[in-house]
Specification:
Helix content: 40-55%
Strand order of the largest sheet: 1-3-2
Protein name: Glyoxalase
Number of strands: 3
Shape: globular
Organism: Pseudobutyrivibrio ruminis
Order of helices and strands: HHEHHEE
Strand content: 5-15%
């Protein structure tokens, strides 16, 4: 479910959401993402639609939503949403 780029990005950026690392290795990261049911969105529109259903984003700009600590930007244009 989570490809190499997603997992590596999470490992690299996990401290944007958590005060300390929740995963040290690739396998730990995959297990963590599965445990919290992290969601991969294919684009900005999908992130906004997903978060509209999952969080109260009323009054937040698109930029604020996409820069939220729960939203991880992936270098290929996708996004990973991790609700800690």
């Amino acid at each position: 479910m989570y490809d190499k780029l997603i997992v590596e990005t999470f490992l690299e950026k996990q401290l944007q959401l958590f005060p300390e690392k929740v995963a040290e290795s690739y396998d730990e990261a995959v297990e963590f993402l599965e445990d919290v049911c992290a969601t991969v969105c294919k684009n900005k529109k999908e992130v906004l639609e997903y978060l509209e259903d999952e969080m109260d984003i009323t009054g937040m700009s698109e930029e604020e939503i996409l820069s939220a600590e729960e939203v991880f930007s992936i270098s290929d244009g996708r996004y990973l949403v991790v609700e800690g």
